[in-house]
């Protein structure tokens, strides 16, 4: 898909193409094109259709999901156009197809398509349409696979990130470290973006930082530490003070002096004797390179007998010249115990050596962390300030896919339904509107769906809401606030106003605010209370 310059122009607005250039109309299942041809052959391709994109079950054993991927869908719509080369390939894939079908594909775009969606970053629930797509059935059918591809993983990983944020708590920093373990380049880029959306604070992924403006974090690996043999390898030993007024000609010697002071400190002398000098050389070298952001990985050899004392010696030396070290990273061992011991060591240094604020050094933990391990650390008690999380986060290790579906619910103003012996797979027919009803405490009570022409629920009005598939389940609700969920994000070439896509930071803020506004029992990790999704019919809307 070749966007015009940087994208599609709508009035004065230019919408860039999808982040991944492989997201083209050919990113599709073959049967989408076979159906498009069959629609065209039958003369049905221009019939007005309505499709709902939704999911059937919340992921990770929870009772909520974070909707993500909408921006990429809109970018795809704005730049939807098959090239001649792509059309030739489609023709090869459909032996016997008529040449006139290629002419149809050549003129195909999304100028007659409308998309209504819940705002990206919203907390969402099963069965409620995340997106309602309206337009000629021939072109809308070709949107199914790309939309599902763009929404499924995005929403899954954003939800995973939100769950990690919930268990870690608001006060901890969460760092996404998953690029090396993600499923390919797009998996890495997408995970970085949607983990940030779901509440993470930063990423190690430089490309994602450039593309999306996500804050970057990173220090060094064990390889850097083990690459040094001694301080003799440090060629440039000069450090200029933070204010630029003084210069230390031999920073290495200054570090060694501080290490001896720590060794002879009454409260610290029994913890260690001789530290690993190659590790000290690595820390010193790294501090000379990054004196303003020095953070050391302290578990290459022995955390308490070498890593922590060596770090403290370098940090104290930096402090003499106006620099404040950031802290340490633990990547192995008993993280709860080691973080507490490290904190005690820092506090002792602050007290014994009269260095204000030294006890508040940041302790970062990594090492294959996930929801369960962070929850266990919380129960054990720890002094970790930041968690670096990779594999289990970006691969969504505990659940492979969200399972969004894209179902026809209306064509030519006639409701359509997909039946199944499995009631969870029965689709909800016709064009719908969705609302979120709030109670007097400010929490959401229930999401309801109505027919498009049904009168909307009103604040203070007693409503009878019904379960989608169990007639005996019903309840009266008196909402204190009513929010309509679906908003128009694409109206093709029409002149009517549509929602503007907000920047990623605003979507992230929305996500965090929505999660904080949910009732705690819906959010808890174990045995969460299911959130209700019901109907509010006032006529024969559901008499199918």
Automatic annotation (TrEMBL):
Q: How this protein is processed and modified after translation, per its record?
A: Transiently phosphorylated on a His residue during the reaction cycle. Phosphorylation strongly increases the affinity for substrates and increases the rate of nicotinate D-ribonucleotide production. Dephosphorylation regenerates the low-affinity form of the enzyme, leading to product release.
Organism expressing this protein natively: Arabidopsis thaliana
The GO biological-process annotations, alphabetized, read as: NAD+ biosynthetic process
Entry-linked NCBIfam families: NAPRTase_put
Q: What pathway is this protein a component of?
A: Cofactor biosynthesis; NAD(+) biosynthesis; nicotinate D-ribonucleotide from nicotinate: step 1/1
**Does the record bear Cell membrane in its keywords?**
no
Reactions accelerated catalytically: 5-phospho-alpha-D-ribose 1-diphosphate + nicotinate + ATP + H2O = nicotinate beta-D-ribonucleotide + ADP + phosphate + diphosphate
Keyword Transcription regulation annotated: no
Required co-factor? Answer: Mg(2+); Mn(2+)
Specify the Nicotinate phosphoribosyltransferase N-terminal domain's residue ranges: 26-152
Supply the EC number(s): 6.3.4.21
Task: List the InterPro entries.
Answer: Aldolase_TIM, N/Namide_PRibTrfase, NAPRTase_C, NAPRTase_N, Nic_PRibTrfase-Fam, Nic_PRibTrfase_pncB, Nicotinate_pribotase-like_C
What class does this enzyme belong to in the EC scheme? Answer: ligase
Name-wise, this protein is Nicotinate phosphoribosyltransferase
Question: What does it do?
Answer: Catalyzes the first step in the biosynthesis of NAD from nicotinic acid, the ATP-dependent synthesis of beta-nicotinate D-ribonucleotide from nicotinate and 5-phospho-D-ribose 1-phosphate. Helps prevent cellular oxidative stress via its role in NAD biosynthesis.
Span of the signal peptide: none
Q: Where is the Nicotinate/nicotinamide phosphoribosyltransferase domain?
A: 174-425
Ordered alphabetically, the record's keywords are:
Glycosyltransferase, Ligase, Magnesium, Manganese, Metal-binding, Phosphoprotein, Pyridine nucleotide biosynthesis, Transferase
């Amino acid at each position: 898909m070749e966007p015009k310059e940087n994208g599609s122009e709508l009035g004065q607005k230019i919408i860039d193409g999808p982040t991944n250039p492989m997201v083209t109309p050919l990113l599709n299942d073959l049967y989408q094109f076979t159906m498009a041809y069959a629609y065209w052959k039958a003369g049905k391709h221009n019939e007005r259709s309505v499709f709902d994109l939704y999911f059937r079950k919340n992921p990770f054993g929870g009772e909520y999901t974070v909707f993500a991927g909408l921006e990429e869908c809109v970018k795809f719509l704005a730049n939807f156009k098959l090239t001649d080369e792509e059309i030739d390939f489609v023709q090869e894939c459909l032996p016997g197809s008529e040449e006139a079908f290629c002419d149809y594909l050549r003129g195909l775009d999304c100028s007659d398509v409308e998309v209504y969606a819940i705002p990206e970053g919203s907390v969402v629930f099963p069965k409620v349409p995340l997106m309602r797509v309206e337009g000629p059935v021939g072109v809308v059918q070709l949107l199914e696979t790309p939309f599902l591809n763009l929404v499924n993983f995005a929403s899954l990983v954003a939800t995973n990130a939100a769950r990690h944020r919930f268990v870690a708590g608001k006060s901890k920093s969460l760092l996404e470290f998953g690029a090396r373990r993600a499923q390919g380049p797009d998996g890495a880029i997408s995970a970085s973006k949607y983990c940030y959306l779901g509440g993470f604070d930063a990423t190690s992924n430089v490309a994602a930082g450039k593309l999306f403006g996500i804050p970057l974090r990173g220090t060094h690996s064990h390889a850097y530490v083990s690459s040094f043999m001694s301080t003799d390898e440090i060629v440039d030993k000069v450090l200029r003070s933070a204010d630029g007024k003084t210069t230390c000609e031999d920073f290495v010697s200054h570090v060694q002096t501080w290490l001896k002071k720590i060794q002879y400190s009454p409260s610290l002398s029994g913890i260690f004797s001789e530290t690993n000098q190659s590790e000290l050389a690595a820390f010193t070298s790294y501090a000379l390179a990054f004196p303003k952001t020095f953070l050391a990985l302290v578990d290459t050899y022995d955390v308490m007998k070498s890593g922590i004392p060596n770090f403290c010696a370098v940090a104290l030396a930096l402090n003499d010249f106006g620099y404040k070290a950031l802290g340490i990273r633990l990547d192995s061992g008993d993280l709860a115990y080691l973080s507490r011991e490290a904190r005690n060591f820092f506090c002792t240094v602050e007290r014994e050596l009269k260095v204000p604020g030294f006890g508040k050094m940041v302790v970062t933990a990594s090492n294959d962390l996930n929801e369960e391990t962070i929850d266990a650390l919380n129960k054990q008690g720890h002094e970790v300030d930041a968690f670096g999380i990779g594999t289990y986060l970006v691969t969504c290790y505990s659940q492979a896919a969200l399972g969004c579906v894209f179902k026809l619910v209306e064509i030519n103003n006639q409701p359509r339904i997909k039946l199944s012996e499995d009631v969870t797979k029965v689709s909800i027919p016709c064009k719908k509107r969705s609302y979120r009803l709030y109670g007097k405490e400010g929490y959401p009570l229930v999401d309801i769906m109505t027919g498009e022409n049904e009168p909307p629920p009103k604040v203070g009005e007693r409503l009878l809401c019904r379960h989608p598939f169990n007639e005996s389940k019903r309840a009266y609700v008196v909402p204190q606030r009513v929010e309509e969920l679906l908003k128009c994000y694409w109206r093709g070439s029409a002149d009517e106003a549509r929602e503007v896509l907000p920047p990623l930071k605003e979507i992230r803020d929305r996500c965090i605010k929505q999660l904080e506004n949910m009732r705690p029992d819906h959010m808890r990790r174990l045995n969460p209370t299911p959130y209700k999704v019901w109907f509010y019919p006032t006529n024969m809307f559901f008499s199918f």
